[in-house]
Design goal:
- The structure is a single chain.
- The chain is of the alpha+beta class.
- It has six helices and nine strands.
- The longest helix has 24 residues.
């Protein structure tokens, strides 16, 4: 049995404020995307084996192709790393293949829309004081995603969490609030 010695209070504080250990991330759920990829692949095989040249058979080929596309999209989502990284400096979000980073001082507020039920995704929305310069530098395809985010959340910069993406800490609001400190408010949207 090893003896446990208490760490002095000043050393505990030094460990608690280490920027390398204080990071909040949201990553794509590999289990969910893997299950969807395998399921879509199996359904595609089922449709393809029952397809023929008859009108109904052609529809089965089309359904098989659609499920193959879904399987590829889900398999690609498994390779996605972090979608959001928040630390002592600020927040970095990945929208499509573009990383958008901003300091806490440039953020008006962070809004967290909690999950309403187990099959629902919540959202973390980052509201910038001046989003114009950030959005103007994005490619057109990425701007389409940010426009959809704006319609859903009221801001262009948002990422999901819950079923399809897993946060590193289940207490999303509290974790972001601790990182933001007093530099910007972090609120839960009800």
């Amino acid at each position: 049995m090893t003896a446990h010695t208490a760490m002095p209070r000043s050393e505990q504080h030094a460990v608690d404020t280490d920027p390398a250990t204080h990071e909040f991330t949201v990553k794509a759920s590999q289990k969910v995307h893997g299950a969807l990829a395998v399921g879509a692949g199996l359904v595609a095989i089922g449709f393809a084996t029952s397809a023929s040249t008859s009108p109904t058979g052609v529809l089965r080929w089309i359904a098989a192709a659609a499920f193959v596309v879904l399987a590829v999209i889900c398999a690609r989502a498994m390779t996605v790393g972090a979608m959001l990284v928040a630390d002592e400096v600020g927040i970095r979000l990945r929208i499509r293949n573009e990383w958008i980073g901003t300091r806490w001082e440039e953020i008006e507020e962070v809004t967290v829309l909690k999950r309403r039920h187990p099959l629902d995704d919540g959202r973390i929305a980052v509201h910038l004081f001046d989003p114009g310069p950030v959005l103007s530098e994005m490619p057109a395809a990425t701007r389409k995603v940010t426009d959809a985010n704006r319609r859903l959340t009221g801001t262009s910069l948002a990422v999901p969490f819950g079923l399809t993406a897993r946060p590193s800490n289940g207490e999303v609001v509290q974790a972001l609030h601790m990182l933001a400190d007093t530099r910007c408010p972090v609120r839960e949207q009800v």
